[in-house]
Amino acid sequence: MYIVMVATECAPVAQAGGLGDVVFGLSREVELRGHAVEIILPKYDCMRYDHIWGLRVTMADLWVPWYSGAVHCSVWFGYVHGRKCFFIEPHSQDHFFNRASYYGFPDEYMRWAFFSKAALEFLLRTNKRPDVIHCHDWHTALVPVLLYEIYQHAGMHDQRVCYTVHNFRHQGIAGENILWATGLCRPQYYFHPYRMRDDFNHAAVNLTKGAILYSNFITTVSPQHAWEARHTDQGFGLGHSLSVHQGKFGGVLNGVDYEIWNPEIERLIPHRYSVNSLERKYANKEALRDRFWLRKDYKPIIAYVGRLDVQKGIDLIRHALFYSLANGAQFVLLGPSSEHGVHEHFWQLKHHLNDHPDCHLEIGFSEDLAHLIYAGADMVIVPSLFEPCGLTPMIAQKYGTVPIVRAIGGLLNSVVDRDYSDKPAEERNGYVFHQADHSGIESALRRAIGLWYRYPEEFRRLMVNGMRYDFSWSRPGMDYINIYNYLRHK
Q1: What is the spatial distance between Cα 344 and Cα 353, in angstroms, rounded to a whole number?
Q2: Percent of the chain whose predicted confidence (pLDDT) is above 70
Q3: For a 10 Å CB count at each end of the chain, is N or C smaller?
Q4: What number of other Cβ atoms are within 10 A of residue 21's Cβ?
Q5: Are residues 419 and 442 in contact, defined by beta-carbon separation less than 8 angstroms?
Q6: How confident is the model over 124-134, as pLDDT tens digits?
Q7: Percentage of residues in the chain having pLDDT higher than 90
Q8: Pick the CATH number of 278-467 from 3.20.20.70, 3.30.390.10, 3.40.47.10, 3.40.50.2000
Q9: Whole-model pTM?
Q10: Domain coordinates in residue numbering, the chain
Q11: CATH code for 2-255+474-488?
């Protein structure tokens, strides 16, 4: 099969979150299974160009229809750690991708509408006819709409679309001008309630709703979140549309790239180890204490690694920090925040706890530190209010770090509670709490810290159980290949 990924991120060349990891990891897995994969990305000025090999112009004159005219683009080609990537560079006064940042601008909808249009125009003009176009999140939600309303009539009538929603919270709510810009026009047609009209703002189109209608198959990033999106408020208003199209909607749990996150082979931790040499993990624990100037004492280290925003359960993270310190544990935190107020709050907290011998807060993100924390911590908390997939506990388990998670989204597909699950003992790998309140996370922390102190061999067994799980891209890669095959013959 021939697959084309259309996305705004691909690790490590252009990445702001987990989307980049998914695009790279899934593309590599599909390629390893014998299929051809190409990735279409914007050519940002802030990309990691040191991760691109052989970058060169492959198409100097791509003219993308835009409003009543056209925008001149160049298309570049290069290899990103073996992945074949095309980068679209528009020569426009709008400077769509030359802004020193990936996201966060007032004209976001126009930027990504243009990118979606340009990706399809590139495929059309170069006679590339993939079996499946796989697009990701609201940024590329116009791809299936444009394909079936415009480009199938221009020669792309055999292409099928798989659309993956990584976060239903962000849907792409745009005005009528996006229709005129992309050549869709006919606002009365697209503003029909069963097409793209937003269910809450009748003066706007919902790009994700449109992608649900026009795509041949829709996925989200875990089976549990697929259920939640249809039946709870986790669909953020799209539950009805997903239920109408439930026959082409499902959840596939993301994978972890074990070429990067693997204590047996990586170079970013001082001491490599495996399930058969677990004692070496404790040398990393000492290295983590040295790095953060923590007291060397017989205590567990509890960690939080991830963004600091409302979705992640800010109040529960803060409460877990103080509960851990009050109950014989050390606490480390690594995470950036772009939300006003949250960033300031955690900086104040950092200054307040600056001299505490059992605590360190690192406001920001460092890949080196993330690897060291996973390798050196005993437990990691993920108290999210909603979590479509949640790579943190899957990564942590590879490092023998026991996850403590809230029972939401993909976290339920990767963590099995030690005490209250009906699954066999060897499948239990962490702690799960249900209520998004202080008593909920306290109950899980109490059980985890208690086991660490009173029954160290049982805690070690929990670590080993987690390390033996396979959260690689092998299974989800096969799931997506099955979806692609289904679409190809549809």
Answers
A1: 14
A2: 100
A3: C
A4: 23
A5: no
A6: 999 999 999 99
A7: 95
A8: 3.40.50.2000
A9: 0.93
A10: 2-255+474-488, 278-467
A11: 3.40.50.2000
